[in-house]
Amino acid sequence: MRTLILKSLFAKPVTIPAPDPSAAALEEVGRALEARVRRLYGRSLAIREVDAGSCNGCELEIHALNNAVYDCERFGLRFVASPRHADVLMVTGPVTRNMKVALERTYAATPDPKWVVAVGDCGCGCGVFGESYAVVGAVDKVIPVDLSLRGCPPRPLDLLQGLIALVDKTTARQRSAG
């Protein structure tokens, strides 16, 4: 037993290094998003993630935005627990029959102006779940979608770039209306 304990104490960790998110690219995208959001809102952007019936691949990438590698809070993005505090709804997965009403209620509870982002191939077009009896359809079949981010799953950097496109689209719409 003592040999086993000593061996485990001096053994190197059996892990692989984290993927390099290209620190310069991440910093550039993050700062660009932060500047646009602050100009539009004057504060941080609140995001509510909603799983409408996915395989959890997209959730892993969305949750990676909060880890030490990406740390999206430094760019003025924060995830909130209630749709009443959210500016953006990030919806993953195809909408299942069990989640249809919950998604509609979440959308109704989110204050205006609100944006909806369909994340992943399943959220945008049902992906591999399209033929299932339990699926109502893609997110846009249930609530209006402002941005579709394809990928299985999309990378965290792609999620940040998609949010930049969404903010730019909204800013351009406001300029043309005003």
Tell me what you see in this structure:
There is one protein chain. By secondary structure, the protein is of the alpha/beta class. The protein has helices at residues 2-10, 23-41, 57-64, 100-109, 120-125, 156-177, and strands at residues 45-51, 77-79, 88-92, 95-96, 115-119, 135-137, 147-149. Strands 2-1-3-5-7 form a five-stranded parallel β-sheet. Helix 2 (23-41) packs parallel to helix 6. The protein is globular, with a radius of gyration of 19 Å. The protein starts with a helix and ends with a helix. The mean pLDDT is 83.
The stretches of 5 or more residues where confidence is low (pLDDT under 50) are none
Mean pLDDT: 83
Which oligomeric state applies?
single chain
Strand order of the largest sheet: 2-1-3-5-7
Major sheet details: 5 strands, parallel
Shape: globular
Share in β-strands: 15-25%
Kindly name the structural category: alpha/beta
User: What string, H for helix and E for strand, traces the elements in order?
Assistant: HHEHEEEHEHEEH
User: Could you tell me how far the N terminus lies from the C terminus, measured between alpha carbons in angstroms?
Assistant: 75 Å
Radius of gyration: 19 Å
Helix content: 40-55%
Number of helices: 6
Supply the key terms:
178 residues, 7 strands, two-stranded antiparallel sheet, five-stranded parallel sheet, globular, 42% helix, alpha/beta
Note the topology.
Layout: H1 2-10, H2 23-41, E1 45-51, H3 57-64, E2 77-79, E3 88-92, E4 95-96, H4 100-109, E5 115-119, H5 120-125, E6 135-137, E7 147-149, H6 156-177
Parallel strand pairs: 1-2, 1-3, 3-5, 5-7
Antiparallel strand pairs: 4-6
Helix pairs in contact: 2-6
